[in-house]
Structure formats: structure tokens, C-alpha cells
Amino acid sequence: MIALASEEARLYLQQVPDRPVRHQADRERLLSVLGGSLATSGAAPEQIVRQLADTAHWGNVACNSPRYFGFVIGGAYPVSLAADWLVSTWDQNAGIYAISPMVSVIEEVAAGWLLDLFGLPNDAGVGFVTGCQMANFTCLAAARHGVLRRIGVDVETEGLAGSPRIHVVTSAESHVTIDIALRYLGFGTRHVHRVAADAQGRMQPDALAAMLETLSGPIIVCAQAGNVNTGSFDPLAEIAALTNAKGAWLHVDGAFGLWAQANPELRHLSRGIELADSWSTDAHKWLNVPYDCGVAIVRHANDHRAAMMSTAAYLVQTAGKERDPTDWGPEFSRRARSVPVYATLASLGRSGVAALIERSCARARQFAGVLAESPGVDILNDVVLNQVLVRFDQDDARTRAVIAAVQQEGTCWLGGTVWHGLAAMRISVSNWATSEADVARSAEAILRCHRMLSASQSG
Ligand SMILES: *Cc1c(COP(=O)(O)O)cnc(C)c1O
């Protein structure tokens, strides 16, 4: 069975770079193959594995293709995929040291490596969670605990109902998962203070300063490294100076932007990020480990642990240096998702990670350079990282039509967005395997679709 799965996986990966990137099947077709009522007696395991594998060739969007530029989606390095298979094979419950000493130690080491790469305090708390959504949740839970602890209130027993009001400040350009985390944590969204952002989506420090002047009591400020549309960074050094002076907790959502810290040439973008109180990021985006893996990092490890930790009589909890992973994230039982992170970092080394990040940025600049040379094509953002926003003929409908045509054509896949009222094509280069040739071929396809639509319009 393992050999069958391995052979099918090899075939799948072999075909990904050459197949159309887009989806090739609709719900009805997928249901006709996969659906029906549950049989009374089951089928042979080999038959099921074969059917899944066969269906995936046309049923899956090839989002690990080197020419997939939608959302912010990484691929998977062979070493990270192999490590992930071992994780499933071992079937370890990574919750506590007593169940899985090896995984606990791997997490401890991987956490240390990440703090080192990101230039963050080596005694910060680190939790491996499902993605940046849960990393934001975990960090903001720690923030909620921390700002109330400082005024003598234990929110874990009082809840928000029994606590003084916490003011939460975000940017007008915060990622939607910040709002979702705030909902999960009982803050709601109506009472969040929103600070204006500039044309690139960066929080404006003057506006933040004016906002903070009006607030008193416990305050949490959410800033961002890597805007999901433009890739821009909030001016973190200035923001940190303001939040520190006010005694506020500064959280930075760095789902992909935190990785700028792993390349000395790019650290100017995230300057001051190390002054924050908590940071969230993803490994399944730019580090190219398989889904799912995000990372929550908190300067004040005690606040982090207090917000997440559980105790029960039957648990065997460590009293020594050993790490109980469940203390650092919302889950109780969970997958050993830190193992692919460990394997990928060990395989790339410091210079390999730096090269991965710079390579994606270079490919984004390549995209912007080639596209901008073509008449009627505008790049809407400063391409500082791996994100490119493109607009065609200064027209919303034309831009949307080009996006749809590119998606249908199948050479590459990318999505659309609305940037400050303007429809735009969104390109994100996050896959380790994307080559210069992939970008050249994709840019050609995009321009071909644009020319075709322009010609049909004027003809
Ligand atoms: C992708 C993203 C998130 C959410 O991350 P998930 O891994 O999808 O949970 C949060 N913030 C930013 C800026 C992102 O780009």
C-alpha cells in the first residue's frame, strides 16, 4: 500500500509542471466519481488509493505548480514532503513530551532556528499551529493575557466579561484573519480602532500617534509585515516607538513578510520588527512545507503559555526543560507539523533560506519588468517583495477579463483583487521551484490574453 501511494505520488509530482494549472473539473463531475451513498461493505484499500490518485490528476488544481501565482501559496520542497510522510507514518500525537519525546525535541530545535533566522529574542515562546490565522489567534490571546496581567487581572479566569476594556487598534489594511482572531477572542469587530494606511497599504504612524493619544488603559496594536496585496511593510520601527511609549502590546502579522528577516539584504523592509511583543507567520507559504503549518511567536513566553496552557490530572506534564507543545498553541492533540519545518531548514541552511526569499522577490521583479513594458499594462504597487498588482488598459472590466482569460488558458494561475477601488490582477511568487523560464512563459501568456482581448474589442 505504501509502495502504491509512493508510486502514485511520484507520478503526480512528475506531471504537475506540465499539466494545466487551472481546475479541470466541476463539482458534478467530481461527485460523479467520488460520491454516492456509503457502501454496506467496503472496497479494497488498493482500489481506493488508486481511485484517489487517478482523480487527483484532473480533480486537483495544480497549486504546487511552479506557475501557480494565486493567493500566497507555496509549494513543497521534496525534503519537506518526505518529512511530512514520515510524520504521518509515525502518527505521533505531538501534544506532550511524554507521548512524543523526539517530536518535542525537534520542535524545540526548529523553534530556536526560526527565532535565529528572524532575529527575534531566543527566549520567546514559539507555537506550531495550523496557519497564520491560528498564529494571529494565539498571539492575540497572549496579548490579551499580557496587557491585563500588567494591571493585575487574570483574563483566563475573569474572561472579557469580568475585565476592564482592552482597546484594540489595527490598520485599515490588516489581513482579514486579524478580525477573525479578534472575533474568536471575544473582542468583536465593531469596537476595533482602525488606523489609516497609505497608497501602498502601510499604516500611517502619524494617524496611529493621534489615535493612541485618545486611548487609555490596556491597548493592543496590530501591525503588518507584508500586505497580502502589495507586499508592503508597515513602518515598524516608528510604530514600535509609539506603542512602547504608550505601554501598548505590539503584534505583527508577518504571514510571509517575517521571512524578509531571513535575508540580510531585505531586513531594511522589516526594520524594527524585533521591537514588537508578538509575531505570527506561516511556514506553508514561503518556507514551502506542505499544509498545514503556521508559527506563533511571543516575546513574553509566560504570557504565551498562560494563555494556552492546560492542566488535567491524567496528563503527564514536564517539570524540567522538556517542551510540552500543547502549552504553546490552542490545540490539544495534534500533528507533528514542526518536523517538515525542521527538515526544510536543515536542508536549506541559513544561506538556502535567504536565497529562497530573494529568488521569489527577483521573479516578482521579473514579472513586473516584463509586463510593464507592454502598452496598456500598469503595475500598481512598488514591488518590494514577492507581490505584484497589475492593471490593464486602466479599466476594471478589461482587467477582470484578462484574469479570467489567463485562468482559462492554463499556462499559469493567478487571481484578482480590488486595490484602493481599482480592479487588479494579483501575482504572488512563493513557490521554491518557480524558475525564470516559468515567469517568462507566464508573462507571455498574460500578455497574449491581453492582446487577444484588446484586438477583439477594437476589431
Ligand atoms: C495568508 C495570510 C494570513 C492567513 O494565513 P493562513 O496560513 O491562511 O491561516 C494572515 N495574514 C496575512 C498577511 C496573510 O498573507
From TrEMBL:
Family matches, as InterPro entries: Aromatic_deC, PyrdxlP-dep_de-COase, PyrdxlP-dep_Trfase, PyrdxlP-dep_Trfase_major, PyrdxlP-dep_Trfase_small
Gene3D superfamilies per UniProt: Aspartate Aminotransferase, domain 1 (3.90.1150.10), Type I PLP-dependent aspartate aminotransferase-like (Major domain) (3.40.640.10)
Sorted alphabetically, the keyword list is: Aminotransferase, Decarboxylase, Lyase, Pyridoxal phosphate, Transferase
- Listed Pfam families: Pyridoxal_deC
Give cofactor(s), names only. pyridoxal 5'-phosphate
Molecular function in Gene Ontology: carboxy-lyase activity; pyridoxal phosphate binding; transaminase activity
Q: What is this protein called?
A: Aspartate aminotransferase family protein
To which species is this protein native?
Answer: Ahniella affigens
